[in-house]
Amino acid sequence: MTQHKRERAKQERAIRTREQLLRAAAEVFDVSGYAGASINRILDRAELTAGAMYFHFKSKEDLARAVILEQATDVHFPRTEPGLQQVLDMTGHLATEIRTNTLLRAGIRLAVDTTEEGLREFAIYDYWVDQFRSELVEAHARGELHPFVDVTAAARLVVASFTGTQIMSQAASNWADLPALIADLWHCLLPAFAPTEVIGRLTIPNDRNGATG
Q1: Who is most buried in 46, 113, 192, 203, counting CB within 10 A?
Q2: Range of the domain at 44
Q3: In this structure, is residue 91 part of a structural domain?
């Protein structure tokens, strides 16, 4: 094996090891939270040694921050109609995805755990704001928003509203009712975002009332 191939194989092993650690940590944090998780439990789940972990992450806190920042790795939004419909579909997809996507769920759980000083990582919120803002910019260009709507403020509101709603849903039903709650949320938010004629053309995902406006 040439030196180049050996280096490439080494890099590929390192990538796989990091991925194993990240996935195992997400599973443990998802069940136990940050305080209840231990390095030993994560290593047992990953079937790796402490040396392997400390090559990639210097501490449990460092590993938890990686789970927070990489929570969207497995999220693949279906592309529908650009603009406001895509915003609705993104939140609908997340409301369903959170129930089966361990990395997403663990990352969100850690991100909202403000009791841990070292885990206060706002960059992930900026990431989600940017995702929604880009679609709201498109919605503005398509004439779907009220002229007075500030797309950045609106994107922040979407992220904050989704975050708060999912926390309530977790406590009430372990996220079983989250899709319906997000649909209810949009019935309240849409009139502040868009004119009535635009709302009438939209479909709210998981709408238990079967209505769009």
Answers
A1: 46
A2: 3-69
A3: yes
Res. 185 pLDDT band, cuts 50 70 90: very high
Contacts of 52 (CB under 8 A, 6+ apart): 17, 21
Domain count for the chain, please give it: 2
pLDDT confidence of residue 213? 41
187 in the same domain as 121: yes
Query: What's the mean pLDDT when you consider all of the chain?
Result: 92
Tokens of 173: 């039903």
Residues 6+ away with beta carbon under 8 Å from 196? 213
Q: Is 209 within a domain?
A: no
| One domain for residues 107 and 30 | no
Q: What is the pLDDT of residue 212?
A: 46
CA 75/CA 96 separation, integer angstroms: 11
* Residue 165 tokens, joined: 């709603």
